[in-house]
Amino acid sequence: MATETAVPTSDASSGNPAPKAPVVEGAPQVEQNGTAEAVEDGAEQADDAPFSLTVALPHDNQSFELPVSPLEQIHEIRQSIIEHPIALQYSCFRLEHKGERVNDYTQVSDIEGLGAGSELHLVEEPYTEKEARIHVVRIRELVGASGDRTDTVHGVLAGASIYDDVTVAEPKEGEASSEVQEYNFEAEPALTSLIPKETEPAPKAVKSISLSPWNPPPAHLRQKGHLLYLVVSTNEGEQWQITAHVGGFFVNKCSNAKFDPFRNTTARGYSEHSLFTLLHKISPSFATTFAEFQEFTSRRDPLATFQVGNTIPSAPWLVPSTASPLCNHISDPTRSQETYLLAGAENTDSLRDWNEEFQSARELPRDTIQDRVFRERLISKLFADYNDAAARGAVLVARGEIAPLNPTEGRDAQIFVYNNVFFSFGADGVGTFTSEGGDEAARVATGKDVLGVKLVNQLDIDGLYTPGTVVVDYLGKRIVGQSIVPGIFKQPEPGENQIHYGAVDGKDQVAADERFAASFEKLATALRVKKHPVWDKESKRFDLEASVEMKGLLGTDGRKYVLDLYRITPLDIAWMEESGPEGSEYPHRMTVLRPELVEALGKQKAREFINAELARRAKIADEKKAEKAVEATKEEDAKPADAENSEDAEDEKAEDKPDAEKTVQEDRIDMANFKFALNPDVFSGQVPQTEEEKAELAKDEQDVRDACTYLRDALKALVKDLRESDISFPMDGRSLTKLLHRRGINMRYLGLLAKLSEEEGSRLECFGHLCVQEMISRSFKHIAARYLKYLPLPLTSSCFSHLLNCLLGFGLNPKPVAEIDETMKALFDDADLSFEKVTPESLRKDIERETVQRYRFTLAENWWGQIRHTQLLREVSLKLGLQIQVKNFLFAGEPEAPAAKDQVATESKKSKKKKARDGSPASIASSSTVPHTFTPEDIVNVVPTIKDSAPRSALAEEALEGGRLSIYQGQRKLGEDLLLESLSLHEQIYGLVHPEVGQMYHSLSQMYYQLDQKEAAVELARKAAIVSERTVGLDSAETVLNYLNLSLFLHQRGDSQLALAYAKHALDLWKIIYGPDHPDTITTMNNYAVMLQSIKAYHESRRWFEESLRVCELVFGRKSVNSATLLFQLAQALALDQDAKQAVDRMRESYNIFKDILGPEDKNTKEAEHWLEQLLHNAVSIAKQAKDQARGARSGFPFATRLGLRDATNASNGLAGKPEVPLTDSRSLDELVHFIEGTEKKKKTSGGGKKRTGRANPKRRGSTAV
User: Fold this and answer.
1) Pairing mode of beta strands 541-544, 63-68
2) How far from 538 is each of 508, 687, 694, 698, 1024, CA to CA, in Å?
3) 1246 pLDDT exceeds 70?
4) Contact 600/743 with Cβ under 8 angstroms?
5) 797, 862 Cβ separation under 8 angstroms
6) Measured distance CA(404)–CA(416) in Å, rounded
7) DSSP output for 355-378
8) What pLDDT band is residue 267 in, cutting at 50, 70 and 90?
């Protein structure tokens, strides 16, 4: 059964070397050692096997069973208890075992006597102020009393999921196939499909819980144990004043005018340890409404509601109207108090020494698996917290909310410290990069630096430390956030350097402290950096392990820090030396090769080394054989025959074992002799002094030129793989970027890739279009950043809307005018409002100039008439962090836009006019007399885009790779165990809602599908879809692929109705992010058609086959094997749809193409010929029967078949030369005859609508179905 070919493999193919799993190396020994190995494994599993504990609660003799693992720590059990339904009210407690307190950070297996059936007692503890604050925050969220939050970093509807909305829209069970709605292939999907459905407001168990105006307690009452004062408004309309005390919560005698926080001694003077239990007592309706609230929250999938903890959630680029209930701003007095509740009065809870935490976490032990799990989970959480804190600080810096440490310096040179994070601008404020390209070079260097830090973090080298690093782009500014390295601000003593390794003060001075040599050598080996000489301004030589730009700093804490990792690879000198179109001088010299390319080249060199060694050994072996043959001939002449036979037999026995051992030793190739490394400092101004040094540098330069040649080969290899459909086509800019980076290709080569795609014609039209669209959107981003850089925040919406009108709205209004609030203009009278002067024509010239400079590509004439408006708007919004109000965007007026006919968007004039007529007045509302496509009100929010340096979990990836390898080697049980272990590790280390966990669900669902475990595959694909929606994007390429996988797996499980809904949703998303006619949709539409056949919706199925064929013809042409295969399937669908004549015509066409391309003897040609004969026979018989019926005759006809009518999938597999897969849904030719004879229908045309220019390429796509 052919699977969805558009689905890529998991992150293991990302170009990074896959770590080996230690378990797998010993795996073959299980079979050899047998019992001993099995016993050892069994004993280990027994030690680690989960068991159940009993947790005894302090009230009403309640208890419950809790499954735990011996490897868990007690604080994890605490969390499980807090989340248990009957222990919700507890948050401040300790656990006791046999009367003794258990330390929260003790491992379960280390507690004496704690095993299966043991009992842990939950004992309530006195509150501290911090514990009381945490308890109040938790109870507010638990009972639904917390309102909406306004978040500067996460944005509107961050982490939203629409999975449940897709499910709700499903056809109900029992619907007849005739009720399948006809799909309109020409229509553009509504953008509102990206917005979560509005739901009724959640029931509230209480109206509000907030801090009392009497808060905080005065000093004398704090001495008596008072911690907080609260006000609770219940659903009954009563207001209760409550004191949070060290002993719990009680109703006090305060009122709004009178302060008396002591216990109310009347009958209603309730007192409880938990605020949750107290609410039960003071509000009669609390229990009922809380149950309703729980039922309301349980309607959604749990994964869709879990808090996103260890990553920044995805912010959608389209958001609902500000008047929508989804964005309704609710009155909540506690919203402004949450900062205090979460961080305390002095904000000490949120102030952290980030650098010390990072380095201490790296120094944790990693001897055992559990040590590594704890260490990697802590590091993952720490990076998530730091990234969030740094992003928040960067936003405040960009908005001018934080005072600089050096206010007298220029704006770009100013530095800031906030929340123990050091901030600086990604600009050349102090002239460091003057010779490299100034601000442009500095901007690129910060991005390269964060990538370098991420690589070093991933390598995890002992004794080498990096600061926490984040790069944030926000409102045209690039801001770098770093943890403060101890000693970084210390002024060096006279004669001392602050930098201990690498360049000091530019490159005039060089330091080479030997204390750094060993650590840097390890790093250089891993990064394939060659040890090389550099010279200072006095021509003194220093031999460095790394680039002279990479610096080593000995912190005052005694740790060795590595800084400035933006030059870990050499310059792409070939790019710098090449000449492009006029005006294409590149804006900077930071054109370094990507680390993925260097790694790929290193692997190729290693393969060449191994092949050369094998060839050398083969030659030696041949020479030895020849010598032995000569010696054997001489000996045979000298020996009697009988003696020769007996001696040979003895020699064979005696030498058999040593020869085998010798062969094993000889078969091993010693890679110690293989060396490949590049000098990152060539072509950067180094001046060798001796002839020997000059020769060495020339050799290093040639090695780098060879790497540049390899990069050009990688470009051609990528185009070849796309042309031959060996890889899936990217869908949008983000997936295109991932594809290029995975292969070590820099984005500056987009122009060259676009040219190569043009040469390939229609096969790569899709790829070429994406390259051009990406160049336009990136150029627009750079242009917008120039206007935004120093613009005050209140004026940015006007700037964004005007620039978007000039880029996309010229069809509606060819002369857009910037809409600026006059009061704002007067307030910011010194603001640079140069964006007002931008016109569509000037913006086009700027984009053309940027494209020529950055990509050496000249855009086609009238390129603005060929863009896809919605898709380009999406790309630009994602790059700039825009959140735009969803509406019916009008890109053309009532009469057709004067722009040239769009060759890419493929919309007919009729549909354009209809779209224009359907535009509501609200969608074009504007303060101007002439309407604009975008208004400032459409720009709802701007979120920062973040590049972080968080490493992936090596342990979880080792288990995943080990599981894959074991399954590949045929050890299925071991492989499945390792896969489950990897899943558990991913969830433990990252949390449930994280992009890495989503990728793991995706990979695992495919593996389980291949292992024929369909239920598990469906469940994992469902989780993958939700997690990718919440962490990568509602309309990301990953989300589309996950929904396609889910659809495929559901169909194979037999749930075709639900599968069809998810497939349709995925196709709608696909159209939004790419547009129509993506080549990979050929397979998806085939799958959809086969699903329709399985529910007997034959006519609609036939339409999907026709659409699939139409796209295939655009990509491959009519006279291709792919089109012939689809014609074959379409002919079957037409026969099932009772259109005998069209079925014969399509089958004849398929047969003729097969015969012309593959020859008459090919099995595909023969099968098409046989089907053609059968269909012709059917058509003649039907015509005869119709004629007889017209005469009143009621005679049937005998019909013998030698080949039953199979499902379209099976047929296509046969045509593709693949082994046929028997299907449960097979149909016989008699069934076909039954349908054809049943009722006579008019002939259907198979036109499938107007032809549209398509984009590009699947080889497998046209020939495989579900």
Assistant:
1) unpaired
2) 8, 11, 17, 22, 59
3) no
4) yes
5) no
6) 5
7) HHHHHHHHTS--SSHHHHHHHHHH
8) low
Are 140 and 230 in contact by the 8 Å Cβ rule? The answer is: no
Ranges assigned E (strand) in 1003-1160? none
Give the pair of three-digit tokens for residue 335.
């919203």
Nearest partner of 1177 among 1200, 1158, 1148, judged by Cα? 1200
DSSP track, 281-319: HH-TTHHHHHHHHHHHHTTS-HHHHS---SSPPPPPSEE
**What is the CA angle 521-523-528, rounded to 5?**
90
CA dist 979 and 1001 (Å) reads 11
Paired with 563 in beta bridges are 551
Report the candidate in 239, 253, 254 with the shortest Cα–Cα distance to residue 209. 239
Give the model confidence (pLDDT) of 803-819 as tens digits.
999 999 999 999 999 99
Contact at 8 Å (CB) between 1014 and 1052?
yes
Q: Which of 307-311, 331-335, 377-381, 796-800 has the lowest mean pLDDT?
A: 331-335
Q: Is the peptide bond before 595 cis (omega within 30 degrees of 0)?
A: no
3-state secondary structure of 461: coil
Q: What is the pTM for the complete model shown?
A: 0.85
Classified as helix, coil or strand, 497 is: coil
Residues linked to residue 479 through DSSP beta bridges, in sequence order: 425, 472
Q: Which pair of structure tokens corresponds to residue 10?
A: 């998991």
Instruction: Compute φ and ψ for 56, nearest 5 degrees.
Output: -95, 125
Q: Per-residue confidence at 1244, pLDDT binned at 50, 70, 90? A: very low
Distance of CA 175 to the CA centre of its chain: 37
> With contact defined as beta carbons under 8 Å apart, do 1100 and 184 qualify?
no
How far, in Å, CA of 195 to CA of 211, rounded? 35
Q: Which residues pair with 231 in a beta bridge?
A: 210, 241
pLDDT at 614 over 50: yes
Question: pLDDT digits over 1069-1123, tens only?
Answer: 999 999 999 999 999 999 999 999 999 999 999 999 999 999 999 999 999 999 9
